[in-house]
Amino acid sequence: MKKTLLVVLAMLFATTVVAQSHPSVSILGDSYSTFEGYLEPDTNHVWYRSVQPMNDVTKVTQTWWHIFIKENGYRLCVNNSFSGATICNTGYRGEDYSNRAFINRTNRLGSPDVLFIFGATNDSWAGSPIGEYKYENWTRQELYSFRPAMAKLVKDLQERYPNVELYFILNDGLKEEINESCRTICQHYGMDIIELHDIDKQQGHPSIKGMRQIAEQIKEHLQQELKVKSEKRIKDLKDS
After folding, report:
1. Which residues, 6+ apart, have CB-to-CB distance to 115 below 8 Å?
2. Given pLDDT bands bounded at 50, 70 and 90, which one contains residue 7?
3. Which of 25, 134, 10, 121 is nearest to 80 (CA)?
């Protein structure tokens, strides 16, 4: 009996260790990453929902982040996505979006191992001011333009989440000045950028097929990154 109890306790301990070993993922996003009932805080605006859906995505299990997390051994930490959110403080019709802007939500992402930032779509669609490249000492007014706000976003995230794997996901179909700005700023700070391509969409948002494509393209990017790191490690060992 005692031996059986020890075996059971050992199995429970092993299961707990395995469960805790899964790296956690947080998301800072816009409508593409929303789903009703799965956001923190739950007052964030939602685009994807099971009741009266806007396209064929009707289940949380069909979202890109749920697919990626489930199929690749991760666990969800925080999904702080807000439908319609811009990175800068200027939103649609020139309205003040500082209550939802990416730059003002960086402290609400938990303690993840991996952080995906999926934005810039609404800055492109809303025609937010592009601004100038600036990497420090931003004024309040400058943060109503995309480039200064994007730079502040990346810098703040790197400082707030050291030793966390940070990835900026760039949507396809955006204005080229937004694309080039994201590439330039991410390169300046050394942040990895995942550029999506050929995503299937309905009503301007990823369909079931599009969500699967996003998950797979992220997986492919991470696998390629791991391969490059492994090859570099082997080369370094040979050279030492």
Report:
1. 25, 26, 27, 28, 109, 157, 161, 164, 165, 166, 167
2. very low
3. 25
Amino acid residing at 164: V
What confidence tier does 20 reach under pLDDT thresholds 50, 70, 90? low
- Residue that is written with structure tokens 């480039």 in the block: 147
* Cα–Cα nearest to 55, from 205, 214, 198: 205
> First and final CA of the chain: distance in angstroms?
55
Token readout for 181 is 């700005």
Rounded-to-integer distance, Cα 236 and Cα 240, Å:
6
Domains and CATH numbers, the chain: 23-239 (3.40.50.1110)
Can you say whether residue 209 is alpha, beta or left, with left for phi > 0 and alpha for psi between -120 and 50 degrees?
alpha
Question: Residue 201, SS3?
Answer: strand
Helix axes 208-239, 64-71, angle to 10 degrees: 50
The pTM of this model reads 0.88
Residue 142 pLDDT grade (very low, low, confident, very high; cuts 50, 70, 90)? very high
